[in-house]
Structure formats: C-alpha cells, structure tokens
Amino acid sequence: MNIVRAGLALLIIFIFSIVFFSSPIQILSKKNKEAQKAQDIPKLYPYPTKSDLYEPATPISARSATVIDAKTGVVLYQKDADIAHLPASTAKLMTALVALEKCAPSQIITVGYVEREPTQMGLASGDVVTVENLLYGLLVASGNDAAYALSYSCAKNTFQFVEQMNLKAKELEMKNTHFQNPAGFDSPSQFTTARDLAKLAKVAVANPLISRIVATKEITVTNANNQKNYYLKNVNALLGTVKGVEGIKTGLTEGALQSLITKTKREGNTIITVVLGSEDRFLDSTALIDWAFANHRWQAP
Fold this sequence. Notes:
11 strands, 5-stranded antiparallel β-sheet, alpha+beta, globular, 9 helices, two-stranded antiparallel ribbon, 21% strand, Beta-lactamase
C-alpha cells in the first residue's frame, strides 16, 4: 500500500512539473528573456535600411545569389542563397585564409608537385617562391598550381590542408560547405552556398593582405632569387570598370558555370555580392551592386 501511495505521489509531482515548466507563463517568460537578450546586442552602424523609393531587384541569370552589408552582415538580397552549389575557384579564398594561418607571408617555399590544370601562375618544379607571391598567383591569376603548392607546403600534405579548410569552414559557421581540394575543382563532395561564401568573403577581406591582393588588377611577381618573373592578370573584369569594386574572387568550371564574389565600396559603405551558377557573372553582379546602393541607405546612430 505504501508503495502504491509513493508511486502516486511521484506521478503527481511529475505531472505538476510538466504543467508548470511548460505553462504559458513560463514560455512567455522565456520569450521575453530571449527578446531582451536580442535587444541588449548593440546594433552596428552605419546600418543599412531600405530607401524611401525602394524597388525590388530585377531578375538575374544566377541560380543562387546574395548581397550583404560588409560591416553588419545584414542581408540586402538573396535568391536561393542556401542551395548547394559547386564553388569552383571561389574555394581559393579559403585556401588563402588557411595558408596564412599556417605559413607566414615571407616564408619561402620550394615548389614540388605542379598542378597542370588551367589556370596557372606559371610555376615549375624547383621554383623558390614566397607565400605572399603564391597568394598573388592564387587570387589574382586564380592559379591552380599556386593552390596546390600552398596546400602541401603549409601542411604535411594536401589532404591535411583540406581538412584544415573544412575545420575553418566549421569555425566560420559555413554550415552547408565542404571542401575536397584546394583549387575548387568540381567534385560531388565539394560544395558551398551563396550565404556561406558571403560569410567567407566577409572574413577574408578583413585580412589586409588578402584585401590588397584581390584588388590588384595586374602585377608581375618574382621568385625568391629574382631570376624568374610571373605576370599575373586578374580574371575579375569588374575591377577598374565598375565604380567602387575592390575584388574579390571569380570562379568558372563546366559544372559550376560562372561564379563571382565582389566587394564594392561607395560613399563609405561596403557590400559583398555573391552570384553562383550564372550565365553572365559580371552582368549579374553589376546589376546587384547598382541596385543595392540605389535602393538602400545607411543610417548613423
């Protein structure tokens, strides 16, 4: 009998705890706390808002796209921003970030294996080049040879370097991204999204060296003993032709079609634009850039 009574008492306590902790009052209290916490987060300024004469963006050919404010991360535009897509050479932005975490820009690398798939900066086995100049080859000329040279020189091997790329993606909360190689070659297990690439670009351009390199239209760099020159020309046709464009990275493969990440600064405000799977990446990006600045204003505190 005592056992029965004890069991009933425990059942009553269990039911009471469920009712109490899931009651409307408790739920409302939890929501209020979450709302208060959100309000306590300081808003970054200048803060982008829609202009008084705001008009929606015109359709673009890209399968996936997004535009964000570079400072606050506020999304100004998105089109299927979370669908998985082949990254093509936009993956080289992550290669650059990881390389700079593992190697100093002044570090000298002796080139071993040379990836021959186009495009290339012009490396040959035995070349002795600084990490910084390899980064120019990687991000200006989109050199696949530079990508692989950095990968096996700034880690024990290319495989471990790619593991670091994926760890960095996780750190940046790129939740729908996975890398399989440092150059961006098409692979079923290599994918990303427009939203994730915008996160990556925001971090990449915060690095002064990367920011300077991706804004370079053309440059000639040398090997470590100044005996060999590498002429590099940026693939990004918007540099020097569209107001305020300062990089960042192109991408093009048969599977990925045309891709482009851009950073554009006008009147002190900066946006990052990502287009993936485009039929004309430069036309799509220009349209989004002009639309974003024409239809938004940045508020001061």
